[in-house]
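User: Could you check the structure of this?
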Amino acid sequence: MKLVLGADHAGFELKEYAKRFLEGLGHAVTDVGTHSEGSVDYPDFARLACEKVLAGEADRAILVCGSGVGMSMAANRHKGIRAVLCTGLYIAKYSRLHNDANVLCLPGRLMGKGLTEEVLKVWLETPFEGGRHRRRVDKMDC
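Assistant: Sure, the predicted structure tokens are below.
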């Protein structure tokens, strides 16, 4: 799968870990930054990643900031983006199964590496169920 990753300074460390993990699983990863722990503004990196998803240059995006909240709010400003703030396996599964989430937002200051690996695997492996959920998802882009 083609993935794009982005983070602010608070999410930098977890983004770097996730990048290595995802590449190890065989995914093609584009990193839009940030590339250090120097202070930056999360909306800039959310925009860069979302633009790649919307242009078809990536299948999905993974965004990381301190709490995950800022990235999810910034990403969801883009029509066609369905970003989810995820801190566990249930949300990872059902955000894909029922909501066809195309952006995963993680809290870099709150999640350990083990849970991050499990969330990434579940989110990437869970297909969209479609059916009645398609109708509901379509209503979000009006």
